[in-house]
Amino acid sequence: METRKYARGLLGAFLAILVFWGAACVPPQAEEIITTVELNPADSMFQRISDWQDLRQTEDLYPVLYHPNPAYRYLAARAFASIQETSAVDSIARLLDDPVEEVREMAAFALGQIGAAEAVPHLIRGFNSQDTSRQHYPSRRAILEAVGKCGDVNTLEQISSVTTYTPLDTALVEGQAWSIYRFGLRDITSTVGTDRMLTLVSNPAYSSATRLVAANYLARMSVPLDSFSAPIAAAFDLSNEPNIQMALAIALGKTRRPAALTALIGKYQQTNDYRVKCNILRALSNFPYESCRTLVTEALRDRNEHIARRAAQYLLENSSPEDAAQWWRFAKDSLPTPIHLELYRVANRHLPAYRTEYRDAINFELRQRFARETSPYRQADVLRALSEFPWNYRFIYRTGQEVQDPILKTATYECLQQIGDSPGFDQFFGLSARRVSQELANYFMSGIRSGEAGAIAVASQALRSSARDYRSFVEPDSISALTTVLESLELPAMVETYNELGQTIAYLRGGEAFEPIKPKFNHPIDWKLLNTYGDRPQLRMKTNKGDVVLQLWPTVAPGSVANIMDLAQTGFLNDKAFHRVVPNFVIQGGSPTGDAYGSLDYSIRSEFSDLHYDEEGLLGMASAGPDTEGTQYFITHSPTLHLDGRYTLFGKVSKGMDVVHNIQVGDRILEASLEKTDKE
């Protein structure tokens, strides 16, 4: 009880200080703080702290929080942001009073990453205890953001209710926006918070950074926006920043108002940024199909493949049955092959049951196409188009048994999973539904016995589907066989597959508890390699579309940088495909088998920093959970703020962003090489 009273008292003081700071506008200047954080990966202590972080040797890290060198205090706090040990809260909280600004910022970030409710009183105290100097603002921004990661709805209401910040209070306003956004990612929202974000995004006097966060909140959170069409449309129309326009397009679509549709169509005709167009096409799913059909048809012919793909995706989700045959015919109208196949998929999904002559022709042509295609990625697209007519399930399974390519093996079970999960399954198969369910269960069991990481993972997911209960079709002896497969999986290379299969075995046994494993430390940082190229190494990827140069950040994530440098130096990255491309999101590569599953025989640690995924061209590590990273990485097309603190960020495109935007699934790295760069 006393603790609750203390926390409420702190929260009240917190609100008072927030309001005071907003009213103060521009604070007076204070004496400069001379001490700064200087990071050097060649420094032996930098390396030691990083190794302790990798080894999770917290007993060695705790004393460093008191080290006289602020760089080491900073690094120790950052280490705990990745380790996320709740028992460290009190020790890290002491750094909120550190004399060095960067250390206070990192301490706040670490407390937010740990996410423990007991950190909130410390963060409030840290916010209130700082003086009024301008240089203290960044840590206050960090504290506000951290509160959003561990506070409750009452704290959200308190922070959201502060309206006295002016556009000149840049860091405080940004902190408020980040806080409300972080609360939202935890499914904690309030009307007051949404109203505040609308205010921030609508006023161009606020910084671009603030408006970007507010726009992403409105786009991403499940909050009612139907009554806010006018202010969002006004902000959408006034903004000339694509990063903000992209998010506002999604938010505007959520209002579902006719005026919003008019604004979206108008902006589509005006903008030249393919990313904005892609998000407008996404937003159109909220409106009547007939109102959007003309624009989508135009988009299908766009030379930018991302736009055409997004238009095809819209049709897959929204086309009317009456138009299905037309999209099949339209596919033959000299469209590029990938879009061609996407429209076959649209036709196969939406074609009315009585149009048997069209259905037979479409599926005959798709089977012929599969035999002609030489690219496994295109063949996988054909299988996906075939899977839209569920009676193709046997053909798809037989095809998967006849091929050796893991890309096609995985695609086979993804298609069968989609068939099993389809909402109209029982109606479609009628009296045969139970028999087909039995066959699919057998197929998924076969996939688990295949030995392929991707096939096992997807088949495991399929068997515990919430759409179809396969448990009655799996014999107890078969479950024992699955356990044998589980024990045979190579770790840590197959950790994602192991966890998927482990969850499925627990599910089949009646919902037993299963704790996903985290790989133990198994891959030390190669400091010699890392320091061969200095503190600003570059990775050059020569692709079939052109060169991409990435500036790597060893001071931010030394383990991840050393890892990708090793992959480049040993030739692993050469001739590797980009196996996943999501329009206006990411391109992803580094899969040894090209199907997005598996890794080499090691894993590396997650390395989280207080940097944000707030622009295009950022390099991150793909992950199946904390400390499961290995060989797969991604590069962003645009801001992806929801990835912050969850996916290691360790570099940025310095040249060739146009190439990144042009890459599609199946494009390849011809050669990867390392380069030194001079200091700026």
Keywords:
7% strand, 32 helices, alpha+beta, 680 residues, 8-stranded antiparallel β-barrel
Describe the protein's architecture and organization.
The protein is 56% helix and 7% strand. The chain has 680 residues and is α+β, with helices and mostly antiparallel strands. A hairpin with a 3-residue loop joins strand 3 and strand 4. The chain has an eight-stranded antiparallel barrel. Helix 9 (153-160) runs antiparallel to helix 10 (170-185), helix 18 packs parallel to helix 20 (337-350) and helix 24 runs antiparallel to helix 26. It is globular. It is built from 32 helices and eight strands. The protein has helices at 2-24, 44-55, 58-64, 70-83, 89-93, 101-114, 119-129, 137-150, 153-160, 170-185, 191-202, 208-220, 229-238, 242-255, 258-270, 274-283, 289-300, 305-318, 324-331, 337-350, 356-372, 376-387, 393-402, 406-421, 425-429, 433-448, 453-463, 476-488, 495-508, 527-532, 558-569, 657-662, and strands at 538-543, 546-552, 576-582, 586-589, 618-621, 633-636, 649-655, 668-675. The longest helix has 23 residues, at 2-24.
Provide the β-strand percentage band: 5-15%
Query: Please, how many helices?
Result: 32
Gyration radius (Cα, Å) is 27 Å
Q: Give the structural class.
A: alpha+beta
Arithmetic mean of pLDDT: 93
Distance between the termini: 55 Å
Overall 3D shape: globular
Helix content: 55-70%
Query: Multimeric state of these chains?
Result: single chain
The total count of strands amounts to 8
Low-confidence stretches: 1-6, 19-34
Taking the sheet with the most strands, its summary is:
8 strands, antiparallel, barrel
Placed side by side, the strands forming the largest sheet appear as: 1-2-7-5-6-4-3-8
